[in-house]
Design a protein that fits this description.
With 132 residues, the chain is an all-alpha fold. The chain is built from four helices and no strands. It has a domain of 79 residues.
């Protein structure tokens, strides 16, 4: 009890004398350089809404690519193993993988799925090199 009292006494003595003032770095008071804020809060929320709408559109497109890829794999397993179908599958996988990487969404998907996409994407890369 005495230790608590002495600690609080010391704390309040330091604060009362002005030695315990909190120093805020000047850099935290400056405007961020990459801020989405405009001249006012309405502009800032408008920018946020535009960015969110764009992200949603990208995610919808990626979802459709994922559905297409799943159907392409099932069709390949059922026997459609033509070169054209395989090339389409490879292109779709590459688009999905590049979108995931570009938008930093790797944390959403299993390692197995990412490895599968990377495998097919690497085939697309090899084919591109052969055509050069």
């Amino acid at each position: 009890m005495v230790k608590i009292f002495l600690g609080l006494f010391f704390f309040f003595t330091v604060v009362a004398n002005g030695h315990g003032a909190i120093v805020i770095p000047q850099s935290s008071l400056e405007e961020p350089k990459n801020s989405i804020q405009g001249p006012d809060e309405i502009t800032a929320i408008s920018h946020l809404m535009e960015s969110t709408a764009h992200q949603l559109e990208v995610q919808k497109q990626m979802r459709q690519l994922m559905v297409d890829f799943q159907k392409q794999k099932e069709e390949f397993i059922r026997g459609n193993q033509t070169k054209a179908h395989a090339a389409e599958m490879v292109r779709t996988a590459r688009q999905i993988y590049e979108t995931i990487i570009a938008h930093h969404l790797q944390y959403l998907f299993s390692k197995e799925y990412l490895d599968e996409l990377l495998f097919f994407s690497s085939i697309a890369g090899k084919n591109k090199m052969k055509n050069l």
